[in-house]
Amino acid sequence: MACIFCEIIAGRVPGKIVYTSPDVTAFRDINPQAPTHVLIIPNRHIASALEIGASDAVLLGRLFEVANELARKEGIAEEGYRIVINVGPNGGQTVGHLHLHLLGGRRMTWPPG
Prior knowledge:
Blueprint: H1 4-10, E1 17-20, E2 24-28, E3 36-42, H2 57-74, E4 81-84, E5 100-104
Antiparallel strand pairs: 1-2, 2-3, 3-5, 4-5
């Protein structure tokens, strides 16, 4: 089965895209856990954070750069927000494509779950 996130990037599956560039795409989560819940993904398929290596440093920086830009655009930067990366089934990763969750618009609790 094809990766759902790769299908969204390719435009074959609809997504509420909020940001796109040659290397990064961001779209609204279909099951939001906060008033703002955006997924930020590399356009190149990387299954999980376990596959990130030294050669991915620039791409990883871009993901965080986009997260910060979207936090400002969404109006959550001042009050604060959470960036989450789930890794593997026990870490809560449900789609096998590296992605950052940008969550905000409400007070976050700890521990997260």
